[in-house]
Amino acid sequence: MAMDFFARTSGTWINAITVLLGTALGLFLRGRLPMAMQQVITQAVGLLTIFIGLGMAASLNDVTAGQVDGVIVGLLALVLGGLLGEWWKLEALLESVGDWLKRHFKGKGSFTEGFVAASLLFCVGPLALIGSINNGLTGDNALLTIKSAMDGLAAIALTSSFGIGVGFSTLPILLYQGGLSLGAGVLAQSIPDPTTSPQVLLVTGVGGLMIVGLGFNLLEVARIRVASFLPALLLAPLVHWIASQLT
């Protein structure tokens, strides 16, 4: 018997709900914590984000494309993807979406910054990809439930610093993860085993480097245009295929 819509996307709905709950708790704490404490929370999230990103980026060491090392493939994907992202003005586009939401829902302060940071953090990563595929294929939402708990905790910290814009990251979560779950059958045909697929490992590694950049932004160490690198996630498997054919 075919699974219904909610069975295939249950993990995504759980994820969205936990982010909303985390946002609500973060708003409650925000008005009760001094600015210095809010900054400490953001810095803690930034440090953890870098740690998670480095762990993801290490998967590049487990990939080769013919004679080409996975790190080189990842670098090529990032450079080409970043150039495309700048050409398409993806960073400005994502910020304009945040600004539109801010105007229409009367957001204040760092609404857009919170929306952009949370959207990238919650959607870029292996759990979002593999968890959504598993959910769509078998109805198993275990991985997305684990991700939901992590995202809910991160939403508390981000909201305490950036405000309600973090809660609107549920929109890209629903679109991205829900879309992956609904399209899982097609993806499964091209990716038989997502946990060992070199394409998935490359996407994970490139996404990890983007997460590291997001961590630097949260710590205000640098201003990295993370959204501009989003095309790299799509280009990584293509670069891998080209490199495999040429070597």
Task: Put the structure in a nutshell.
The protein has 247 residues and is mainly alpha-helical. 75% of the residues lie in helices and 2% in strands.
Indicate the topology.
Blueprint lengths: L4 H4 L1 H21 L4 H23 L6 E2 L2 E2 H19 L1 H15 L6 H13 L2 H13 L3 H21 L7 H13 L1 H7 L7 H21 L12 H16 L1
Antiparallel strand pairs: 1-2
Structure description:
This protein has twelve helices and two strands. With 247 residues, the chain is mainly α. It has a two-stranded antiparallel ribbon. A hairpin with a 2-residue loop joins strand 1 and strand 2. Helix 5 packs across helix 6, helix 6 packs antiparallel against helix 8 and helix 7 crosses helix 8.
What strand order characterises the main sheet?
Answer: 1-2
In which range does the helix fraction lie? Answer: over 70%
Radius of gyration: 18 Å
Number of helices: 12
Topology pattern, helix = H, strand = E? HHHEEHHHHHHHHH
- Taking pLDDT < 50 over at least 5 consecutive residues as the criterion, the unreliable ranges are none
Number of strands: 2
The residue-averaged pLDDT reads 90
By helix and strand content, what is the structural category? mainly alpha
Approximate shape: globular
What composes the largest sheet?
2 strands, antiparallel
Q: Give the terminus-to-terminus CA distance.
A: 45 Å
| Range of strand content | under 5%
